Amino acid sequence: MRKLFTLALALSMVLAVGGMALAQGPSGELEIFSWWAGDEGPALEALITRYVELYPDVTVNNATVTGGSGVNAKAVLKTRMLGGDPPDSFQVHAGQELIGTWVIADRMEDLTFLFEEQGWMDQFPQGLLDLISTDEGIWSVPVNIHRSNVLWYNPAKLAEWGVEVPATWTAFVNETCPALQAKGVIPLALGENWTVNHLWESVALAELGVEGWNGLWDGTTSWTSPEAVAVWDIFGQILACADPDAASLSWQQATDKIVSGEAAFNVMGDWAAGYMVTTLGLTPGEDFGYVPSPGTDGIFMMLSDSFGLPRGAANRDAAIAWLTLLGSAEGQDIFNPLKGSIPANLNGDVTNPDLYNTYLQSAAADWKTNTIVGSLVHGAVAPETFLSNFATVMEIFLATGNAQATANAAQAVALQSGIGA
After folding, report:
1. Residue 34 forms part of a structural domain
2. Which domain does 35 fall in, by range?
3. Which are the contacts of 351, defined by CB distance < 8 A and separation ≥ 6?
4. CA–CA separation, 235 vs 246, rounded Å?
5. What is d(CA 421, CA 60) in angstroms, rounded to the nearest whole number?
6. Cα separation of 32 and 40, whole Å?
7. Does residue 156 come out as left (phi exceeding 0), alpha (psi in the -120 to 50 range) or beta?
8. Rounded CA gap, 175 and 180, in Å?
């Protein structure tokens, strides 16, 4: 009897100590750096709420810098990283945006240990693991999959105008655009500068095809080839159909023009679906329609938002706990239905209609069956140095309309960035 009592006492002490260790967890302040503010904020806030439930001793500093596609946040992050004051974890597009900037500068920690501990090597698609990895390690935790090449429209308005969704950009320029302009309707909604680049990559994908598009990034497609020059020619014709007020609009305001019927079409990533569902309360397939952008049927141009662990993070333990939640199926099923994206973790409950609406389920089906290519504008296929200089390339085209001169400039920027060298 005495032995049983002693064993029970010892067991209770072990459980108490174990429970205390679990209860302790990380503490202090966790600074999360991102560009998800305003209409994109609810998805991140939902994750933070769950994190605080799991780790009540941590105070989360949700540091956001507004600006579509992270154009402003990246500038602030650069100052902090170079100044030796990194946030504990920061949002970054998976792929070369991180690897070609902060990994090659030895400013990030290898996260292979976390992927192995959490069993993620079997829970993320191999192609995505390849995107976030080098021979030296795995560098970020993907929280979602977004699609870049989506054409959005208002079905009721198209029916009212007697206009069909164009299957190609040539059909859009020669048929759809003139028909809409004759009715006083803006054929194509656009926003601030980065949304023009975003449109360009869908046009380039359509005109070059998968092999030609991928060739831009491995050097097998020359930017000065006739096919690549022709992309700029058709792009110029498309821009002639665009909203003249575009430069003053955010991407959300461009989306609003589709909803209101002021404009007919908009090419934007599927965070637009998150905005229309979460913020505007609209129903996909009824209040708004969606198809792959013209000429890209069967192709999924992807990007992934991810978070990394900078060297020298002030609260490394809290950051690792944050990354653990982000990569889990639970965390991704909290985040993605609100964000308008699908889970990167294959264990996400994407077939659950209570979580994922009809648009997201269609995107998930396409993700499994389509040919997958990476986005330029959202960091998947080219280093940040190229994307930064591509803004100058676009300015040359917008100022001159000269396709050949623009192609020459793009080729020079590619070589300077180590693409095709």
Report:
1. yes
2. 27-146+303-371
3. 361, 364
4. 16
5. 44
6. 15
7. alpha
8. 9
Pairing mode, strands 150-153 and 263-267: antiparallel
pLDDT for 78 beyond 50: yes
Same domain flag for 35 and 112: yes
In single-letter form, the type of residue at position 45 comes to E
Residue 108 in this model has a pLDDT that exceeds 80? yes
- Work out the average pLDDT over 131-153: 97
Backbone CA torsion sign across 269, 274, 276, 282: positive
Check whether residue 211 and residue 229 sit in a common domain: yes
Please compute the mean of the pLDDT values over residues 230-246 and round it to a whole number: 97
Q: Assess if residue 206 is contained within a domain.
A: yes
- Number of neighbouring beta carbons within 10 Å of residue 121: 12
Residue 314 counted as domain residue? yes
Tell me if 133 is assigned to some domain.
Answer: yes
The whole-angstrom separation of Cα 231 and Cα 171 is: 15
- Scanning 142-244, the segments in alpha helix (DSSP H) are 155-161, 169-171, 177-182, 193-218, 226-239
Q: What is the mean pLDDT of residues 344-363?
A: 96
Which backbone phi and psi does 419 adopt, to 5 degrees? -90, 120
Contact 144, 378 (CB under 8 A): no
**Concatenated DSSP letters of 386-399:** HHHHHHHHHHHHHH
- Same-domain check for residues 292 and 410: yes
158 and 93, same domain (yes or no): no
Cβ–Cβ under 8 Å, residues 221 and 208: yes
Q: Letter for the amino acid at 50?
A: R
- Give residue-wise pLDDT tens across range 317-338: 999 999 999 999 999 999 999 9
Domain count, the chain: 2
Predicted structure pTM score: 0.88
pLDDT of residue 394: 97
Residues 317 and 293 in one domain: no
Residue 342 is classified by DSSP as: B
Lowest mean pLDDT among 171-180, 226-235, 384-393: 384-393
Instruction: Report the CATH number that the domain containing residue 254 is assigned in CATH.
Output: 3.40.190.10
